[in-house]
Amino acid sequence: MSERHSLQVGQENIEYILTRKKMRNMRMRITSKCEVTVSCPFHTLISDVEKFIEKNLDWIKKSQSSILQNATSLEKYEYMTGEKFLYLGKEYTLMVKEGQTREIKSAGDYIFMTVYDLWDFEDKRSLLDKWYKSQANRIFADRFSYLKFLHKDFFAGNYQLIIKKGVSTWGTCAVNTGVVTLNFRLIYAPIELIDSVILHEFCHFYYIHHDKDFYGLLATLDPLYKEHSKALDRKYIDYTHYND
Ligand SMILES: [Zn+2]
Fold first, then answer.
1. Distance from the CA of 135 to the center of ligand 1, in angstroms?
2. I need a labelling partner for 49 at 20 to 30 A (CA). Which of 32, 39, 193, 211 fits?
3. Do residues 130 and 153 make contact, with C-beta atoms less than 8 angstroms apart?
4. Rounded to the nearest whole angstrom, what is the distance from the C-alpha of residue 189 to the centroid of ligand 1?
């Protein structure tokens, strides 16, 4: 059973939900709604619960503020008509309407979205995500085979492409298996920056380390590689339309 309590600590009024259960040690958790929940063994004294909360006050404050920060970045978009989204380095305006279908397509500078419920943000987010994913699959694969063909004198091996979400680098190259991994977020960047990452990873099939030889080859294939890499770091490193 759970009960609501509050506790005055200095100027601060801490509200918490207390649950007594069969357990050994008291435990505390902060919910996604920033609520403090404490679970404790059946016969714990309230004064001990309060001491426990006081002792962990700093931790409570820190956890709550980090939840609030993440919440703001998650709520950056409402997926409503007029909001702008990056795609291949260009801004697209979202147009949303309610209808009997659930679909998404782009035309001109617009992304058109039809959903059953205009207020279902999670559904809209997942639909847009699906669209980005299918674009990334198509475009990255296209550029990958095009660049491999363009530089076939250098890259004759049997390479394979993998697209990943939630990775911290733009690309990686597994020399032994021939697998190049690209970061899904590259879909926000212009084609020439996507190309520059693919070429960078291709060069690792020759040189594992970022040494003089590596950059020598890269400069032949991508003479503007320095500018490209700077542009990626400067403009696109933090870009995301939600936390992935
Ligand atoms: Zn590298």
1. 25
2. 32
3. no
4. 18
